[in-house]
Design brief:
Helix content is 14%, strand content 26%. The protein has helices at 9-14, 214-221, 247-255, 333-340, 348-367, and strands at residues 32-33, 36-38, 48-49, 63-64, 67-68, 72-78, 87-94, 100-103, 113-118, 127-136, 151-155, 176-181, 186-187, 204-209, 212-213, 233-237, 280-284, 289-299, 323-328. The strands form four sheets. Strands 1, 12, 14, 15, 16, 17, 18 and 19 form an eight-stranded antiparallel sheet that branches. Strands 6-7-8-11-10-9 form a six-stranded antiparallel β-barrel. A two-stranded parallel ribbon has the order 3-13. The chain is globular, with a radius of gyration of 19 Å. The structure holds calcium ion (CA) (4 copies). The site of one calcium ion has 7 residues, from loops.
Length: 368
């Protein structure tokens, strides 16, 4: 089970052409989930920035407001029982208590092998665990933008010595968020092409603002929709300071909607990319970083919908003007509490049975 992702960079480079083969779920039109499939062994990893991704590495010992982020997780998984022949990559965050990881539903609804690495710096993990069970939100059926794309993974052994995070219980629309993940990297200007593996041994961080919740956003881009919501979500745009690329404000203007969106956070602005799925958006409470969002989807919205286009590069995902969505944690705080409170199984055998039972349930439900 314990495998290091230290396979050759050559294999990773060869896999580049198949990058961004998102796994599942294209439910809401145009939106796509952001796990990355890595065709050969090796790992990927992260995030689109205003300057070279090397400026945005999450390095060992780095703190924000005095808090370290070894609790950021890199998740490798597959449903063929084998990580050597390729796997999917997501991100996640350690919950307070050290026994669970918060991630996206689409990262935990179809796997039978999973390796979770914490505190990965230059491709060396501070701690590695497996999954004992996956608790996918009951509302998740592959449909994006209805607030259901969230899951809690129970670790096969507690993580000690690494700080986990508490969840936010308030609606954080309007808040600046510290975003992190182990996805692919590029720059927002599109000059470096689609997100790739240039920084594959590192996690990256950046900032953005949660401008609008699920209902107001969907009503603006899809008037008259009849979505059934299971929770809330936050929608972000990747700003470069220009009016033209302030996509959420332009959507609001066009729709006569009540929300607004700034022209961004200057050089700090970032957007998630492939492989960041399931990763965290943090808000600062005044005394701690709280888990506010779980990365869910990306959307090259602008082309064909807004003129002149709000996207600086229609061919590059996570370029300026593109959108992302994160499941809003506050809307699932009670559910997360209930899952984390479930007693641990008494033996490894029982844990394995629990995992299979969850996976089987999800498969049956998704065929329905
Ligand atoms: Ca595989
Ligand atoms: Ca923004
Ligand atoms: Ca904006
Ligand atoms: Ca784009």
């Amino acid at each position: 089970m314990k495998r290091r992702f230290s396979r050759s960079l050559g294999i990773v480079a060869a896999a580049l052409s198949a990058a961004l083969a998102a796994s599942a779920s294209f439910a809401a039109e145009g939106r796509s989930t952001l796990p990355l499939y890595v065709p050969g062994a090796g790992i990927t990893p992260q995030t689109s920035h205003t300057s070279p991704p090397s400026d945005w590495r999450l390095t060992a010992g780095m703190t924000f407001n005095g808090v370290g982020f070894d609790g950021l997780a890199r998740i490798a998984f597959d449903s063929d029982g084998d990580l050597d022949n390729g796997f999917y990559v997501c991100s996640g965050a350690l919950l307070a208590g050290g026994r669970h990881v918060l991630t996206a539903g689409h990262c935990a609804d179809n796997f039978n092998v999973m390796q979770i690495d914490f505190g990965v710096y230059d491709n060396v993990a501070t701690a590695t665990r497996g999954a004992a069970a996956a608790h996918v939100n009951p509302g998740w059926d592959g449909t994006l933008s209805v607030g259901a794309d969230i899951a809690v993974i129970q670790l096969d052994a507690p993580v000690v010595g690494i700080q986990g995070f508490n969840v936010s219980t308030s609606n954080d629309v309007g808040s600046p968020m510290l975003i992190m993940g182990h996805g692919t990297t590029t720059t927002g200007d599109g000059q470096n092409g689609p997100p790739g593996w240039d920084e594959w041994g590192w996690a990256h961080f950046g900032w953005n603002e949660a401008d609008v919740g699920a209902v107001d956003f969907n009503n603006a881009v899809d008037p008259g929709n009849d979505y059934t919501y299971f929770g809330d979500e936050y929608v972000f745009d990747f700003d470069n300071g220009r009016w033209l690329n302030n996509t959420l404000q332009r959507i609001a203007n066009k729709a006569g909607a009540s929300f607004s969106s700034s022209r961004g956070l200057g050089a700090d602005e970032a957007l998630i990319a492939g492989g960041d799925s399931g990763g965290p958006d943090f808000v600062w409470s005044g005394s701690e970083w709280l888990l506010a969002g779980v990365h869910s989807w990306g959307w090259q919205y602008c082309r064909g919908r807004i003129f002149p286009s709000c996207d600086v590069n229609a061919g590059v995902a996570s370029s300026y003007g593109d959108l992302s969505g994160s499941t809003a944690v506050y809307s699932h705080a009670a559910w997360i509490d209930s899952v984390v409170a479930i007693p641990e199984p008494g033996s490894y055998g029982m844990m394995a049975m629990g995992l299979l039972a969850v996976a089987g349930f999800v498969r049956r439900r998704r065929r329905a």
